[in-house]
Amino acid sequence: MSRYSTVRTPTLAIGYLEWNPTGSRSAVLLHGWPDSPETWNGVAERLAAQGYRVLCPALRGFGPTRFLAADTPRSGELAALGRDLLDFLDALHLERPLLVGHDWGARAVANACGLRADAASAMVMLSVGYGTNDPHQAISHAQAQAYWYHWFMATPRGQQAIVEEDAKAFARTMWDTWSPQGWYTATAFEEAARAFENPDWAAVVLHSYRHRWGFVPGDPAYAEDGRRLNPAPRLSVPTLVLHGGADACNHPDTSAGKEASFSGPYQRIVLAGVGHFPQREAAAEVADGILRFVQSHV
Fold first, then answer.
1. pLDDT at 2
2. Residue 172's pLDDT is what?
3. Which helix (H) or strand (E) is 211 found in, with range?
4. Is 187 in contact with 128 (CB distance < 8 Å)?
5. Nearest by Cα to 248 from 189, 179, 181
6. What is the DSSP secondary-structure string of 66-114?
7. Range of the domain at 50
8. How far is the C-alpha of 106 from the C-alpha of 44, rounded, in Å?
9. Backbone phi, then psi, for 241, in 5-degree steps?
10. What is the DSSP string of 148-202?
């Protein structure tokens, strides 16, 4: 992971990839689970070619990112991900960058904008609809079935699979089933899986899914942030949602009908034939969609 730079925040030493450091505008791209910052390689190159300074941090528990203190709870709660992003922006003095997130990263950028109204010039969410912090949120029976891995990780047997058995094979199951077959190479998965070797990966992942549905308490340090984010605040930031039409993790319908949560420009695009990882499966289409949206609304 020699390509990574590191910046310290109050809680973390965050590793990040960077393209075009002298770019006139900034874009911060956040990965999801189970993935790594390299998920953005194709999109980042295209944004950098259009003048963006692009930064792709590793979330807490992933890649080279490390907790600064041994006694900090290894929380994966969604409010913490939003606060981590704000701390990252502050540490690098990034003012109102374009924020783009996939999966966990989409929740992080939405929560950052919910906690700080002027955090971003525009926000892009991939594969996730807005307003997913509430453990009592309604989900369809089909979506509950798709979330089998959430419920599995809430059990001792699920914890054993993540901690004591082959976590990489467990993660690969998601790659194999969330998108149309044949969409990735073994090399791409192995590159992403190196991010799972972080010593805190299992603890953060297990806590994230257990906390999301109210099975375990959160870190008191994020209690106030959590209260501010639930119910989900109405956002004024220009927002683009990109969702794969063949996403077998979060059904495309889960991101539909969210317009009332936004007071600023809002657009949702469903990408035909694309699964849960649009930034990997259709990097050019994703980058072009982002650039068109920003050009029109920012």
1. 58
2. 96
3. helix 201-212
4. no
5. 179
6. EES-TTS-----HHHHHHHHHHHHHHTT--S-EEEEETHHHHHHHHHHH
7. 5-297
8. 16
9. -115, 125
10. HHHHHHTSHHHHHHHHTS-HHHHHHHHHHHSS-TT-S-HHHHHHHHGGGGSTTHH
pLDDT (tens digit, 9 = 90+) per residue, 125-147? 999 999 988 899 999 999 999 99
Q: Please answer whether residues 198 and 13 qualify as being in contact, where contact means their C-beta atoms are separated by less than 8 angstroms.
A: no
pLDDT at 1 over 60: no
CATH code at position 159: 3.40.50.1820
The structure tokens 């009332």 sit at: 260
Please state whether beta strands 5-8 and 12-19 pair in parallel, antiparallel, or not at all (unpaired).
Answer: antiparallel
Number of structural domains (the chain) is: 1
Specify the amino acid at residue 24: S
Burial tier of 138 (Cβ tally within 10 Å: 0-12, 13-18, 19+): exposed
The count of residues in the chain is 298
